[in-house]
């Protein structure tokens, strides 16, 4: 039956979701900010990869000085993990704020 309330609700939700997606897609500033943030995250993750490799090499060498160096390397890793969490949190907030701002400014499409 075409008057199925579930079907109508589903269509309305899908339309609203598509409309919201179009609003964000049309804002190059939002995407530029996200792109910059993802590049920062990737840089930290690349550094972590190098740190982990160095920690593994130091550990395998079993040289006492290298093992001592691992303490500082692991501390840097922990700090970097916190930095990545913070960057992702900031991205989420920035994206949500931009999305809400567009809606409050009336920049929605009416189809």
Automatic annotation (TrEMBL):
Question: Which InterPro entries does this one have?
Answer: EARLY_FLOWERING_4 (IPR040462), EARLY_FLOWERING_4_dom (IPR009741)
**Localization per record:** Nucleus
Q: What is this protein called?
A: Protein EARLY FLOWERING 4 domain-containing protein
- Region annotation (Disordered) maps to 1-28
Entry's family note = Belongs to the EARLY FLOWERING 4 family.
Domain called Protein EARLY FLOWERING: residue spans: 27-105
Sorted keywords for this record are:
Biological rhythms, Nucleus
Q: Which Pfam families match?
A: Elf4
Q: Please give the chief subcellular localization of this protein.
A: nucleus
Q: Does the keyword Nucleus apply?
A: yes
């Amino acid at each position: 039956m075409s008057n199925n309330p579930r079907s109508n609700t589903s269509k309305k939700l899908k339309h609203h979701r598509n409309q919201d997606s179009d609003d964000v897609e049309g804002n190059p500033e939002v995407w530029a900010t996200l792109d910059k943030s993802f590049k920062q995250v990737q840089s930290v993750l690349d550094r972590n990869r190098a740190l982990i490799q160095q920690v593994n090499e130091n550990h395998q060498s079993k040289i006492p000085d290298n093992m001592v160096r691992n303490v500082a390397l692991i501390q840097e890793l922990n700090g970097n993990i916190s930095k990545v969490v913070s960057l992702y949190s900031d991205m989420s907030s920035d994206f949500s704020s931009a999305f809400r701002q567009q809606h409050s400014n009336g920049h929605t499409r009416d189809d």
